[in-house]
Write a structure and sequence with these properties.
The structure is a homopentamer.
Chain A (H helix, E strand, L loop, with lengths): L1 E10 L12 E7 L10 E5 L8 E6 L1 H7 L8 E6 L2 E4 L6
Parallel strand pairs in A: 3-5
Antiparallel strand pairs in A: 1-2, 1-4, 2-3, 4-5
């Protein structure tokens, strides 16, 4: 899984019927210091994440498991809202 | 999932029989500001996407689910047409 | 899926028994203008692709589906031979 | 699989119920000389790994197998604690 | 699949019980000219590959199929030993 920040939403009227009701959140991957890394992805919210929140997202089949929608074309979903990230900086060197 | 733009098509007569009838769309990945990022991929259209449209595509097993063709060798498919992308720019910093 | 060009073959006598009879093609990923991008991969041919041909390859479980060998350790396969790639250049800007 | 070092933890109260009890470890990928490469990921501990330990982690469906939680939205898990890495340097040239 | 060279081993006493007996080989990805590309990975040997040998490795579910251990947390395995790589250099330009 990865840490990310919810930075926006995608609105799509014409879509796969199994995505109906899914909130498509634009999610910015973050490093362990909460700095942006790489490009945003679209993840389906499964835990009530709001704009600006730091979250954990998962990819692949795990994303459909998290969304409890095994028959939906989902490859990324938000599965936790982060309270705290504890990193031991000296271990990163 | 990712945001992309349909920029072309691939024509292939000799192909896996389970790809018959699939529209192979050349899709350019976009960032949340709709700027191109990285190289194009080929995604199967499942929602009637046309050339130039901004779409959401999905990868892996999710792509076969979206195409409703679990027995086809598909690893990317277009599953939504984007009406709007709402990004909170200040959150990206 | 991605566009690629078959640029060689791998010969391997000692291998997984479920790869017996599989043609292991060295495949160079291409962008939509047929220029090489990134490093070559090994994909199993499933459509009679020859050296120098432009093809579509797929990855992951889709590759085993394309090869019709769900019990083989295949993670990439060639599933179509490209007749034509139509790209609208102005859409890429 | 990849070699990594456990450098921290993520605390998340609101999360997928199938993540309850999972320890979310911030894991720094390492090269074979134990130097950091790329960005940290979040992997679920399955072998009692502690902060600072060198581990082997796995991704995708393998991660859920390692965690023995096929119904949890896990896409990375720690499956071994490294005693030793033996690399033949001259082979890397 | 990809071409790689076995450059070392990982020793791990504390590990997932389904990894017992698996040889964890440090494998350096190679391009089609057998030059190193990118960082090493850990792949489970399934064909008796030795240190220094050029191999084909596979990733994801294919790796568990190759290892014949669908219940092990394996995401990469060595499935062939390379006798020869035939590349048509002029096709790479």
């Amino acid at each position: 899984m990865h840490i990310g920040k919810v930075v926006g939403t995608v609105v799509a009227t014409r879509k796969d019927e199994n995505l109906t009701g899914c909130k498509l959140m634009i999610t910015q991957p973050l490093d362990s210091f909460k700095k942006p890394i790489g490009d945003t992805i679209i993840a389906v919210d499964t835990v009530g994440a709001g704009i600006g929140e730091i979250v954990v997202y998962t990819k692949g089949t795990a994303a459909r498991i998290g969304a409890n929608r095994l028959d939906a074309p989902i490859d990324a979903s938000i599965v936790a809202i982060v309270d705290n990230v504890d990193v031991y900086n000296d271990l990163l060197e």
